[in-house]
Amino acid sequence: MYWYTITPLDVLLMRDAKPFTPGERAWAGSIFPPTGHALAGALRSILGGDRLEIIGPFFCRDRTLYLPRPLGFYQSTPLIPLDWEHNSPLHHCLTNSMQPRPLVKATETGSPSDVEDDSDETKFRQYIPADVAQSYLKTGKIERKNWELKYAGEDKPWLVETRSHNSMNAGTRQVKDADGYFVENAIRLLPDWSIAIALNQNIPTPVTLRLGGEGHRAILAKCEALAAQWDKLQNLSQQNFSKPGKSLAYLVTPGIFERKHDGGNSTCKAYPWEWKLAHARGNLVSVATEKPVAISSRRRDRTDKSIPAPQVFAAPPGSIYYLNQPQSLFAEDAASKPGKALDAAKNLRQLGYSQLLWISYQEHD
C-alpha cells in the first residue's frame, strides 16, 4: 500500500446523508472526515476504473499519523466490562444480561497524579498520534500525559464555517420565495493538518483532485513516513489477535455492520452481526461507542444508471469492542460462505470501512 496526504486548497463541502433541497430544508449539514465513498469518487476521477483499496481516512500533522481516540475511556480513565472488574462495588446492581454488559471504571488507574486533574474543563486529545496508539496496543493503557493537547488541532483539526446562499428575483432586491435561500457548513482544515490515506495504487504526485461539492480541489501527495507508522500498528495488532484470551478491538474507521433482518429489512448495528453476545455463547462482552455516523452513497440500477443508495448508519471511529476471544470480521474470515453478502462486505472493507486494531487485555491486580 502507498500512503498519501490530501491537503485542501480551500474549504471542503462534504454534505451529510440527509436529503437536501433549498426551500424544503434550508440547512445543509456536513460530515467530516470524508467517507470512503466520497474519497473513492474523488480518486476514481484520476485513476479511472482501476480496482481501488483504501485504508483510512486518518489525519496527518508534520508527517505523523493521527488516529481517532479510543472511546473506551472516561476522560483518561479506562473503562472495562463489569464482568471483568472483580473489585467493582457495582456487581450488586440489576443489569440486563441480554444486552452488552455495563462498563465501569477500572480500579487500577495509575498514580494519583494520573487522575487527580481530570476535571470537566480539561481538554483531551480527540485524535492520538501513532506513538501513543502503539503504546495503547502494547499495554491497553494510555497515560494521562498522552491525553493532554500538545498541538493545536489535536482535539479537532478542522473548523466549520457557516455560509449562506441567496438567489434574488430578477430586477428586485428580494430573495426568491422558492429555492431562494439556504445555509450550508463548509469545512476548513487547520494549518499543518492533512487527511491521510493509503491506496493500492502508485500515483505520481503531487496531483490535484476534486473532493466534495462545488468542485473544490485538494493536493494529493505521497508521504512514505506514514507507511512505517501504520506497519508498526498492524504488526502489533496481528500479534495481539493471535493471542488467546480477552481482547479489545479498536475501530479506527467508521464500521458499517448491515444485514437483512426482520423479514428482509436492512438493519445496522453498533457491532458486527457475526459477533454474538456472551450470553448467547458468543465472544462479545461489551461495547464502548457513541452516536452513529450517517453515510450516503450511490449505486447502479438495472439500466446502469447512477442513483442514490439507501443511507446506512456506521459505528463511529474510536469504538471499542470487548471480547472473550479475538474473532475475525465476516469479510475477513476464510470460513465465510461465498455469496452476495460476502461480496458486499468485502467491497465496504476495500473502501476503508470497519478497520480494526487489536489489543490483548491485561488483568490488573
Structure description:
Helix content is 15%, strand content 30%. It is α+β, with helices and mostly antiparallel strands and 365 residues long. It has 2 domains: 148 residues; 158 residues, Immunoglobulin-like (Sandwich). The strands form 7 sheets. Strands 8-4-3-11-1-13-12 form a 7-stranded antiparallel beta sheet, sandwiched between helices. Helix 3 packs parallel to helix 4. The radius of gyration is 22 Å and the shape is globular. The two termini are 41 Å apart. The relative contact order is 0.21. About 2% of the residues have low confidence. It comes from Aliterella atlantica CENA595. This is CRISPR-associated protein Cmr3. It holds the Pfam family Cas_Cmr3.
Net shape: globular
Question: Which spans of ≥5 residues are poorly predicted at pLDDT below 50?
Answer: 109-116
- Indicate the radius of gyration in whole angstroms: 22 Å
Structural class: alpha+beta
Identify the strand order in the major beta sheet. 8-4-3-11-1-13-12
Number of strands: 23
**Largest sheet features:** 7 strands, antiparallel
Mean pLDDT: 87
N-to-C order of helices and strands? EEHEEEEEHEHEEEEEHEEEEEEEEEHE
CATH topology of the largest domain, by name, is Immunoglobulin-like
Helix fraction? Answer: 10-25%
CATH architecture of the largest domain: Sandwich
How much of the polypeptide forms β-strand, as a percent range? 25-35%
Number of domains: 2
Gap between N and C termini: 41 Å
Determine and state the CATH class of the largest domain: Mainly Beta
Number of helices, where a helix is a run of at least 4 consecutive DSSP H or I residues: 5
